[in-house]
Give the backbone structure.
Amino acid sequence: MKSIAFVAAASVLLAPGVSFAQKSGAKPDFTLEPNYGSVRLETGFTPDPWTKSILAGGSIPASAAKSGCEGKVSAAPDLQLNYTAGDLNLTISAVASEDTTLLINTPGGRWYCDDDGGGEFNPLVTISDPESGRYDIWLGTYNDNMVQSTLQISELGGSDSASGAAPNMDLEPNYGAATLRGGFTPDPWTKSILAGGSVPASAAKSGCEGSVSAAPDIQIFFEPGEGDLTFRVRASEDTTLLVNTPNGRFYCDDDSGGDLDPKVTITNPQSGRYDIWVGTYNDSMVQSTLEVSELD
């Protein structure tokens, strides 16, 4: 009888339309480890804006932190900014294909939030005379959905649309780095990547297809052997590929690998760093496998 009573009580607590987070009193908690780590920026930082690809959203109402704030966020901050202020204002914004919101806790404990201040459903918060210290940042969405977005931090006013966003090989790659030398095994070398983003690949090179994250998905440090170097993506949906070579040249492809898979082959490859983005259409996110080969 005790277990039956517990189940009955639980069914009341978790009634339709009421989430556990809402019922339990969960709220954004800046003491939790941030989902996407931390960054340290000092006034005058470059590039400006500094950007980070973030999957926005969660199940906790932003209004639990400050009345009137819109959207739902995760419990943990998405990013922790450790900032050394100068004489400039600090602008934090986000760019996405869907409506997103922004929640910020400053070093002094003050909460800021915004919904559409950046235009076209993009949030933007400008902090005048910012303090030095830690800023905890959440990106929210509506209805518990998750949306790929690009967070921007600027002292120059930020951007009011995606028009200024571009793939940036100076950013930390989403899936780290790998070192490969001619004759590497196994061949192909593979890496599982969640493809997509909110930045048009064409911003890197005219004619390139799909949308990618601002940061590269992965960096390959390559020492060539005798063969060519081939990058290929395999996925159940249509994906695209963008590659920046050690000499700064961009390559891109949509369907050359067959079955809607992209493939880029570089003949006589150089030694050095290759920055690789795996893209999709319509800002959707697709699970994919990147293959790097000398035998293709």
